[in-house]
Amino acid sequence: MVREKKAKARKKISYSKWGYIFLIPFFATYLVFSFIPLISTFYNSMFENYRSGLTQIGPNFVGFENYITIFQSDLLKYLGNTVILWIIGFIPQIIISLILAVWFADFRMRMRGSTFFKTIIYLPNVIMAASFAMLFFALFSDDGPMNNLIIRMGLSDSPIRFLTTVWGTRGLIGFMNFMMWFGNTTILLMAAILGVDSALFEAAAIDGAKSFQIFTKITMPTIKPIFIYVLITSLIGGLQMFDVPQVLTNGKGTPDRASMTLIMFLNNHLFSKNYGMAGALSVILFIITAALSLVVFFILTGAGKQKGGSR
User: Fold this and answer.
1) Mean pLDDT of the region 242-255
2) How far is residue 18's CA from residue 63's CA, in Å, rounded to a whole number?
3) Fold adopted by 74-310
């Protein structure tokens, strides 16, 4: 009887509380470093607060006036620049990363030295973006190595001014973002493919399925959750693009502000100590990021169709 009572007492012990206890550090960190600053930013965005020379103006409550001023500025132009720069870098990034991930994870190819190649393609990811931008600035300057090579090969009689044309500058920024992040994307997609049961690929190959059919019918549907994660995190990172165009254009977004991003626009307000406008722009950027991420998520997952179909 005593043993039965002890066994019943052990069964009644709940370990679910430990899950909540282990979550406390995360929520405490999120509360202190993310949630409270977010609320504070929204609160400060409702005030006029800036410096004019040595004179401090404000803080004076102005309501949504800062938001109206932001929307009357070139916000849409800078949003368009940011999206274009992200697309230029992301499209080749996802294509090359998918190809490399499939190659490295293909059990039939058995590539030799795959570990070495994985390390090489990931190396640009550990280089600071500012250093990367300075390197490209030196390489593609008017008297840089690239122009010297082009002239010696007879492809042009005079130096090509890459950084003075809109698409030349955008192309370099997109190419740098591609170089820095395609290795990380490849590793994530490869890990997702390796998590798929190899019996599915073997069965498809035995049934005579071609490589493209295996990719479209097995690989992509099974790694869809990771693909959505990569797309959304890349979109968020693209909207927060700052260091590469900032260093490459010296913070001016030249030429004709065609490479000025939203975070560079925000940085200009912070540099001028216009905290009210900077707060308003931060809130707008947060809303844009959340909205686009939700749109991408619902489009790719078809959550809306599934919900509608269930009715």
Assistant:
1) 89
2) 44
3) MetI-like fold (1.10.3720)
